[in-house]
Amino acid sequence: MRYIKTPVRLCRSQSGLWLARFYTTESNPTKKVVVIGGTGFIGPYIARSVLQDSPSATVQLACRSPRDHPQVSSSHGGRLLPSIAADVTDSQSVREACRGASAVVNLVGIMHERRPRYTFDAVQNEGARVIAQAAKDSGAKLVHVSAIGADVESEVPYARTKGLGEQAVLDVHPDASVVRPSLVFGKEDDFFNRFAKLARILPFVPVFGGGHTKFQPVYVEDLARAITQCIATDKVNGKIVEVGGPHVYEYRDLMQLMLDQAGIRRPIISVPWIVGYIQGFFLERLPENLFTLTRDQVKLLQRDNVVSGSHMTLADLGVSPTPAEDVLHRYLRRTRSGTGVRPPTPASTHSRSYFTSTRKPRIVETIAEYRALRHQWQRQDLSVGFVPTMGALHDGHVSLARTARKTCDIVVVSIFVNPAQFAPHEDLGKYPRTMEQDVAMLTEVGVDVIFLPNVKEMYPAGIVLDVKDQQGTFVEVKGKSHQMEGSIRPHFFRGVATVVTKFLNIMQPTKAFFGQKDAQQCAVVRTMVRDLFIPTEIVVGETVREPDGLAMSSRNRYLSPEERAIAPVLYKALSAGQRAFNEGTAKSRDELIQIAKAIIDVQHGAELEYLSVANPFSLAEEEQVGSEGAIFSGAVRVGKTRIIDNVLLGISTETWVK
Fold first, then answer.
1. For position 8, what pLDDT does the model report?
2. What residues are annotated to the active site?
3. Cβ pair 280, 332 in contact under 8 A
4. Which has more confidence, 640 or 357?
5. Sheet strands (E) in 37-152
6. Strands (E), 508-629
7. What CA–CA distances, in Å, run from 37 to 83, 96, 124, 134, 565?
8. Alpha carbons 487 and 614: distance in angstroms, whole number
9. Is the dihedral of CA 250, 251, 253, 254 positive or negative?
10. Contact 65, 40 (CB under 8 A)
11. Largest pairwise CA distance in the chain
12. Do 650 and 596 form a contact (C-beta atoms < 8 A)?
């Protein structure tokens, strides 16, 4: 039996105009789509999508026990046929269901085995082969719905049999299309609804291993439109389509999104993976219920569930994905009773970001281009968070960008190695530049714009490293630039204040984010913003450290393995002084410096440059730690690399940053 194509016509769907084609056969001109496993969550959406976009089509849903499922409502007359029986472990019933079909959609899948008949292999591998053979024998096009993470090499039976099922389908029916969705959400989903119900029962929401596994949830209507497109076009024949939403979220952020959209207040607490395995060991032996969890599901939770970029996606099918924030509030509010709190709408949660973007940031190289964008954001009343960097990014920069992402509508990161911060003998030419890696890191965070100006753009009059030969306008903050780091690098903060002033004037950000590791820089910038009446809030993030305490820095990559082992000595020395202060055994500048210096002096390969005990606000050197506390800071040189760090004495980070 050979395929013929119906005439091409234009249909309108939510994703715009697209070409709709259905395969028919010469002996069966009626377009009939059979959806096997179609009476569950996704099937009715596929039925409605097909019927909406093809006025001459009929749809029939098939499942193991159609009498157990009410007929899906439809406003398309008699074109939604009565459900029929089809059991993938009974090949004859599947052949009967596929007879006369122009297209078959396989939605069959299980999360829990029901032995001895309905095992993962019987349903997701051999069952997929049975459906593929029946579709081929009927001359029908086949869309096989699998899952992101399908892998024939997986140790988890669910994922392994999904992968084997894909292989079986393409072996039997080479023109079949394989659709791999990420987590699917919608009014009847078993993910957000389940966790919202659990959140009402439990005193907290547990997340395993910190909740850092990534998901890319896709709205069920978008998935249905994608499957409808796979039926309607031959460009996906024999191909895999990975279907994910517009944003990538960490699991913890999905839980926070669920709580916010449902209006439920619960803490999110990280639980070790081993607890999940123990819980699964017991719960998988009980009848399926709200608390059901298996050890295999715990293993799957340790693997990211996002679009790989190696296959076709929704964009190739002309489907524009829907953000979870635009939908969840419509049905999660149903999980709430008697709380009197109205769940948030998308508008009220617009400024809060839960996701990690998969879209690369826009690269902007000129002030004119950026200001055009800023004008648009201003008209839309969007807040802007700005993170200035010199590139060679690390987790400290990422932490600042994440904070900006959570608190601002738009996040801009600049990458500019500022010549004005370097003396003629310093490492301007050797400063690390890792643009490709930087863009990848900022993409994962969800940064919107990377501002990447050249030196001419930032210094129209030009710039030389020798201060006495420089021309143009420069900014200097008196009283806070000559001590501490300024005692070693006398013109450094002149360069910092100048470039930050330029950036704040260009960016006009709502907030600008700096790290506490550069405590003196934070103090200089805050003073400058206050004195020049710049309407930007300066936000200071805590120092991000390596496991051994070394503060993260772009220059750490200069260190050899031997030098890297020495580098934490400064933090150890400062921490020893901090402990002595907290214990009341050291209060004076001399006592604190003596403690720290003793540790540094015995460390071979570390050369002390300075130690400072300064007022946290004026930066004046203190002989005694006063009521306002102090910044205990210093610098050492390890090989050719300078290591700087600081700790606070008698004052919390929260108080100091305010």
1. 31
2. 397
3. no
4. 640
5. 57-63, 80-85, 103-106, 141-145
6. 511-515, 537-541, 606-614
7. 10, 14, 12, 15, 59
8. 13
9. positive
10. no
11. 97
12. no
> Do 31 and 54 touch, CB atoms closer than 8 A?
yes
DSSP 410-425: EEEEEE---GGG--TT
Distance of alpha carbon 81 from alpha carbon 72, whole angstroms: 10
CA atoms of 143 and 145, how far apart (whole Å): 6
* Whether 298 contacts 273, CB under 8 Å: yes
Q: How far apart are CA 544 and CA 398, in angstroms?
A: 10
Q: What is the pLDDT of residues 156-191, one digit of tens each?
A: 999 999 999 999 999 999 999 999 999 999 999 989
Give phi and psi for 563, each to the nearest 5.
-70, -35
Tokens of 6: 């119906």
Q: What are phi and psi of 250, to 5 degrees?
A: -75, 155
Q: Quick one: how many helices (H) and strands (E) in the chain?
A: 22, 27
Kindly indicate the confidence band of residue 211, based on its pLDDT and cuts at 50, 70 and 90.
confident
Any idea of the CA torsion for 345, 351, 356, 357, to the nearest 10 degrees?
A: 90
Instruction: Please calculate the CA angle 45-49-53 and round it to the nearest 5 degrees.
Output: 175
**pLDDT classification of 113: cutoffs 50, 70, 90:** confident
315-329 residue pLDDT tens: 889 898 888 888 888
Q: Exposed e or buried b for every residue in 417-433, given b needs 16+ CB within 10 A?
A: bbbbbbeeeeeeeebbe
Q: What is the pTM of this model?
A: 0.54
Residue type, 322: T
CA distance 210 to 537: 30
Whole-number Cα distances in Å, 3 to 25, 140, 311, 610: 5, 9, 26, 81
DSSP 71: P
638 or 29, which is more confident: 638
Which string of DSSP letters, residue by residue, matches 604-638? TTEEEEEEEEE-TTT--B-SB-BTTBEEEEEEEEE
Two tokens, residue 482: 């000559």
Q: Which amino acid is at 158?
A: Y
Nearest Cα residue to 257 out of 245, 274, 273: 245
Structural domains of the chain in order of their starting residue, each with its CATH number: 3-188+213-248+305-326 (3.40.50.720), 359-541 (3.40.50.620), 557-657 (3.30.1300.10)
Strand partners, 250: 214
Task: Compute the distance between CA of residue 119 and CA of residue 106 in angstroms, rounded to an integer.
Answer: 17
- Please give the average per-residue pLDDT across 25-42, as a whole number: 74
Q: pLDDT digit string (tens) for 38-61?
A: 888 999 999 999 998 888 889 999
| Contacts (Cβ under 8 Å, ≥6 apart) of 472 | 459, 460, 461, 462, 463
Nearest alpha-carbon partner for 120 in 86, 164, 87, 151: 164
Structure tokens, 513: 């984010």
